[in-house]
Amino acid sequence: MSRIAYVNGRYVPHCRAAIHIEDRGYQFSDGVYEVCLFVGGRCLDLTPHLDRLSRSLAELRIAMPMSRAALTSVMHGLMRRNRIATGTIYVQVTRGVAPRDHAIPREPLRPATVMTARRFDIEAHRRRQETGIAVVTVPDPRWKRCDIKSVSLLGNVLARDAAAKAGAAEAWMVDEAGRVTEGASSTAWIVDQEGRLLTRSLGPEILPGITRAVILSLAAEQGIEIVELPFSAAQARAAREAFTASTTRFVMPVVKIDGEPVGDGRPGPLSRALIARHWAHVSAETGYVPPAISDFHSASSPLR
Ligand code: PMP
Question: If you measure from the C-alpha of residue 50 to the centroid of ligand 1, how many angstroms do you get, rounded to a whole number?
Answer without folding.
Answer: 14
